[in-house]
Amino acid sequence: MTNKQNIGWKLMLLCLIFVFLAACSSGNTPANNPPAKSNNVKTEEGDKQPPPDEKKDPVTLKLISWSDSYTELYKKFNEKYPWITIEQIPVNSQPIMEIIAALEAAGTPADLTWIDTDLISFDQSGLLEDLTPYIEKDSTFQSVKLPDGFYDTMTYKNKKLAVPFVDVPMWILVNKTLLDKHGVEMPGNDWTYDDFRSVAKQVTDPDAGEYGLTTQPEFQMRLTSTKAIADGHAANLQYLNADLTQSLLNTPDVMNDIRWLAEFVSKDGSMQSNAKAAEQGDVTREFINGKTAFAIGGDWVLPNLKENAKFEWDVLPFPKGKVSQPGYSIYGPLSLLSGSKHKEEAFLWISFQFSKEAQKWKIDQGANASVIDPELTAYYEQTPMWQGKNIEAVKIAKENAVIQPGVTIPAWSEYNWNNIVNEIVFDGADINKLIPETDKWNKRTLEVRDQLK
C-alpha cells in the first residue's frame, strides 16, 4: 500500500509540474503579462493620437490660402496624422468668400481658410466656427504659454473666430555693402529715427543710382505708424487710439509723422518718388537690386535674399522713438469653416501650429515663435536662417512687436489710410486730404459699431 501511495503522489506531482510549465510557455504568468495597451499615444506636446494599429478613414482637408510655401509643413502634419492630407486651395486674387461659396455649391466644401479681410463680415455670413470650445479641450493649447492678448485681434463678441497661424515680424533690411562703400558703420540695435534718416542721406548718390530707402509702400504702411507709437502720438498701429475706435491720422502730431517720411522724397532726396523710380527703370523699387541701403522686410523676402543677393545684408529692429522702440508684426488669421465636414480633423491642423515641431519650422522660415518657451527662444541661435546675421535684432523685433489690428474693427475695409498716405509720400499729394477722409471714417466706424451691438 505504501509503494502504491508513493507512485500516486509522484504522478500527481508530475502533472502539476507539466501544468506549471505549460502556463509558463504560454506567457500567462503575472510577470510575463504584457501591459494593457493605452487607447492613445501621447506626443511630446501632450497631443493624443490614435494608436498605430487603429485604422482611420482617409480625410483630405481643403485649406484656402494664398501661399504655396507650406508644403513641407503639410508633410510634417501628415507624418503625425497619416490619415489626414492637406490640399491647398489657391486664392489667385479671387475673394476668399467667393471661393468658399463655389466649393460649397460644388458639394466639396472647404475646411479651413486664411482670412483676407475683416473677420466680422465672415462671421455675419455664418462662415466661421467658434474655436473656443475646441481650444478649451485641446491638450496642446492647454499645455503651451501664449503671449498676453494673443486672441484679442481675432475675438469678436466673445467668439474666437480665428487663431494666428503665423506671427510675421518686420525688420529694417540693411545693405551692409552699400554702407561700407560710403564709409558708414552698421548702426546698433538701439539706433533712433534720427540715425535712420541721417544714414539714409549719407549713402545717397543719385549719380550712381544709389539711395537710402527703397521706393516701397512698406515704409508708409509699416514705419510711419510705428514711429507714431514710438513718439507717443498714437497708441496702436495704423494710427489708431487706445481702444481701436478712432483714427488719429488727422491730428497735428501724426500728420507731422507723415510729413517726416514724405521729406525723404521731397527734401532729402534719399528715397525716389514713384515717378522718378519709373524713369530709372524701377531699379530702386526692389532691395534685392543692391541700389538702396534700407527696406522693410518680413519672412517672405528672406528666401530670395539668401539665394540671390549679390551683396552683404543684415537686419535691424525698427528705430527708437522719443518714448519707446516698438516693432511691427502681423498675425495671419486661420479659421475653421462652419461648412466643413471634417471639423475635428481640421482643428488638429490648427492645434498642430502650436506644437514645437511646427513652431521651430516657422522660425526656420524667418517667422516668430508664437509659443513662449525657453527651448524655442534658444532655437533662434540654432536655426540656419539667422546664422551670421544680427540675431539680437530678430529677438528685439519679436519682444517689442506691436500687432497689426484690423480684422475685428468695424468698417475696417473702408478705412482708406493706406492709399492716401501712399499718394502723399510717393506722389506729392496734399497732406490735408487726410482730414476729411479720417473724419469720415471715424464717424462711419462708430455707426457700424452701434449697428453690430
UniProtKB/TrEMBL annotation:
Annotated Basic and acidic residues bias: 42-58
> Gene3D superfamilies per the record?
Periplasmic binding protein-like II
**Signal peptide annotation:** 1-31
Q: Which residue ranges are recorded for the region named Disordered?
A: 30-58
User: Which UniProt keyword terms apply here?
Assistant: Signal
Q: What is this protein called?
A: Extracellular solute-binding protein
Polar residues composition-biased segments: 30-41
Q: Which domain of life is it from?
A: Bacteria
